[in-house]
Specification:
By secondary structure, the protein is mainly alpha-helical. Helices cover 50% and strands 6% of the residues. The chain is built from six helices and two strands, in the order αααββααα. The protein has a two-stranded antiparallel sheet. The longest helix has 16 residues.
Length: 136
């Protein structure tokens, strides 16, 4: 359970758009320059954000990307939950994992579920607007 580079960069992209794209679209090149990230790598991240409805894109001369809704309505969990493929505390909590034959008698499963719920609640406390306001 580690937040990947993809997850961390996606947060940075969203924060950048919250700061610099309130009234207009921002280019991926500008985001990459400000964040010191590879534009090529950001292309795959932005596709994922667009596909999941967090970002919208516009082609053309004044095109680019911007948040699909107000930054105060987008949480860190919204981003992490789509960028992290394997963000489970224990493997048996992954819906794609083979069913464990101990699921009905496992005394630790409720603890893992509670921890997962607490982790999600933690990330839901932070909005992109909150994080953008803290960035200098």
């Amino acid at each position: 359970m580690v937040v990947s580079t993809k997850g961390r960069y996606a947060l940075r992209v969203m924060i950048d758009m919250a700061k610099f794209g309130k009234d207009s679209y921002v280019t991926l090149g500008d985001i990459a320059d400000r964040q010191g990230l590879s534009e090529k790598y950001l292309e795959s991240i932005i596709k994922l954000l667009v596909k999941n409805g967090l970002v919208k894109g516009l082609r053309g001369k004044n095109g680019g990307y911007k948040l699909n809704k107000d930054a105060s309505k987008i949480t860190a969990w919204d981003i992490i939950s789509i960028t992290e493929n394997d963000f489970y505390v224990v493997s048996c909590m992954n819906p794609d994992a083979p069913k464990c034959d101990r699921v009905t008698s496992c005394v630790t499963l409720p603890m893992w579920k509670e921890f997962s719920e607490e982790m999600e609640a933690f990330f839901r406390k932070y909005t992109i607007a909150d994080l953008a306001a803290k960035e200098k």
